[in-house]
Amino acid sequence: xxxxxxxxxxxxxxxxxxxxxxxxxxxxxxxxxxxxxxxxxxxxxxxxxxxxxxxxxxxxxxxxxxxxxxxxxxxxxxxxxxxxxxxxxxxxxxxxxxxxxxxxxxxxxxxxxxxxxxxxxxxxxxxxxxxxxxxxxxxxxxxxxxxxxxxxxxxxxxxxxxxxxxxxxxxxxxxxxxxxxxxxxxxxxxxxxxxxxxxxxxxxxxxxxxxxxxxxxxxxxxxxxxxxxxxxxxxxxxxxxxxxxxxxxxxxxxxxxxxxxxxxxxxxxxxxxxxxxxxxxxxxxxxxxxxxxxxxxxxxxxxxxxxxxxxxxxxxxxxxxxx
Length: 323
What we know:
alpha/beta, Arc Repressor Mutant, subunit A, five-stranded parallel beta sheet, 12 helices, 37% helix
């Protein structure tokens, strides 16, 4: 019975979304998608819960795993350690059974090969357990997938986008401040009947929101920049933002011009001497800089073309930037 008061998990979800309405709807519909057992062949995605915070050394502890625990109180969840998961291990999914409804990869590593999940997300899966015969779970009976991670899952292309929905977690919680300190006790473990009823009602609300809206998305906060960071370097992204942007938007003065490669390479190395020293030792090259620049451009809405332009007497290798 609904007593009209917000339960602790509802408050917790709002905190994870920094009390942003659109972001909260994305998390609620993602949760509802996982809870609902019907599998629409045109909507087969893995839900990825990822930290919002930009950091060179992600720490975790932001509350992502508690979202999985919420699901486990309603559905049969097979939890898999994402840090050490090996797709080539024939028994990798041995904790999955016929009645498994959700497979949750907890704390997946930076190099997790998401593409190797594609056919399992869309087509069903085969499971082999030690000492038992292999069995196939058909698509309509197969589990849904959720991943939690401190990192950004690196994917490319439309096919990858069709198989994932990503929700960032605001860094309100961490090692220095936990949900227990926020609520005065552990979630789930110290609840009375009233709080459990509020939890059940909120999970039902999440499912209803999914049925009403489908899987909603929102304007990601740092996901794009974090993806570039993982493919390049923290200092490089800082340089790129300073060079190409004004107040967070692309600077038109940088677009539509040929700029010598060496000029940009030297500018970066001069601003970040550690890379300059590495360049002097042959450990950081113009080629590496160019590949990073192309990654940065592709995730920030402009293109990079390479060519030769005449400077004084001889042609000079240059970049051309365009929208």
